[in-house]
Specification:
Length: 370
């Protein structure tokens, strides 16, 4: 009996302690997870970028066409891009200004000149001189259509293709010569054009695909105009290198057009299965950030099939804006050396929509090969 009474007494004490203890000593709130606490701010910190005061041609981006006409007057030429914008070309002293207009609004501006300035930039300045004027960012946090996009520049990008953000929400890419480290070209653009042309790595978010405008356009004229414009930019570069300008092949004499048409009609005949899959994948993606180029042995084989000599050449796709693409090329050693060739005297350029094929030839080669 005593044992029973003792057992019940202990049992009652335990029950009282079990139910009363939480009331007297309430539990403390759980501490936040240290992993989450560290990760969240680190993400924002790594993509923060600085902006600079809007000046120069950045003031015209996202402005109406009337603003351009009021300040620059009538352009020397107006060309259709085939990608839902038109290009208005204004000659500069030893250079050119190209204003791209979409639906009556300036979406981007390309500029190259041997003399002009475009605050805060000066043509011929070095990357180091630019860095002394402003802080260059490697990471950018932007948004488009309410979606965040994180952009990261590599060390090579920072040296040859730095991205500058203005406080009006527009951007500029400064292109530096791969050999001389001198500013050779500028491209100003809004966020949509930046995401279309995207030459950098995107860590989150997506670039924008380019849309081809098929209806009511004469693509034969567009292709010829783009070939001429690409040649003009290349020759501007060559004159800056103290090299003679290339003479331009007419379409009637063009070997590059025949090579381009042959490749596009049956790419599977030239490419390995793996490379053909790569070509198809990049063609369907329609992203400027996913370029495709023929390897030297592939291009040599294409020329051999067509009975042409092994002249220097290149195939590249996509080219949405020829001037922007040439700027990109000249910041890379291989393309810089290609267009610095001192033996060839002619350039033969063929476009088919976003695809381009370039050949460098001797002056008398076309006549000899016919």
């Amino acid at each position: 009996m005593k044992r029973m009474i003792g057992f019940l007494s202990i049992f009652i004490i335990v029950l009282i302690g079990y139910y009363v203890q939480p009331i007297i000593f309430p539990p403390k709130p759980a501490e936040p997870s240290p992993v989450e606490q560290q990760n969240r701010p680190a993400t924002h910190k790594s993509i923060r970028h600085e902006t600079i005061q809007t000046e120069g041609y950045a003031q015209y981006v996202d402005q109406p066409l009337t603003e351009v006409e009021m300040n620059f007057g009538e352009p020397a030429r107006i060309e259709q891009s085939g990608f839902f914008y038109e290009t208005r070309i204004y000659p500069l002293e030893k250079g050119s200004l190209e204003v791209n207009i979409e639906e009556g609004t300036v979406v981007s501006i390309n500029m190259f000149s041997a003399k002009s300035e475009s605050a805060p930039f000066t043509f011929g300045m070095t990357n180091q001189q630019l860095a002394q004027q402003m802080s260059l960012s490697a990471n950018f946090a932007v948004s488009y259509d309410e979606e965040p996009v994180d952009i990261e520049l590599s060390e090579e990008d920072m040296r040859y293709r730095p991205l500058i953000a203005f406080d009006n929400g527009t951007f500029a890419i400064a292109f530096f010569d791969a050999k001389k480290d001198r500013l050779l070209g500028l491209s100003y653009m809004n966020i949509e054009m930046l995401l279309r042309l995207m030459p950098y790595q995107i860590n989150s978010g997506n670039p924008l695909s380019f849309l081809v405008q098929e209806s009511e356009l004469d693509w034969m004229v567009i292709n010829q105009q783009k070939a001429q414009r690409l040649t003009e930019v290349v020759n501007f570069f060559r004159r800056g290198q103290k090299l003679p300008a290339y003479s331009f092949q007419t379409e009637k004499e063009s070997h590059s057009q025949k090579l381009l048409d042959d490749f596009l009609s049956a790419p599977e005949d030239l490419l390995s299965d793996e490379r053909h899959e790569e070509w198809l994948s990049k063609q369907s993606a329609r992203l400027n950030s996913m370029p495709f180029s023929l390897r030297p042995e592939e291009l040599d084989q294409l020329k051999k099939i067509n009975g042409l000599a092994k002249d220097p050449g290149l195939f590249y796709s996509p080219v949405i804006d020829p001037t922007f693409t040439v700027f990109q090329w000249l910041t890379q050693n291989s393309y810089h050396e290609f267009f610095s060739d001192q033996q060839q005297e002619q350039i033969d350029v063929a476009f088919n929509h976003e695809n381009v094929l370039v050949l460098l030839q001797e002056a008398n080669q076309t006549k000899d090969s016919d």
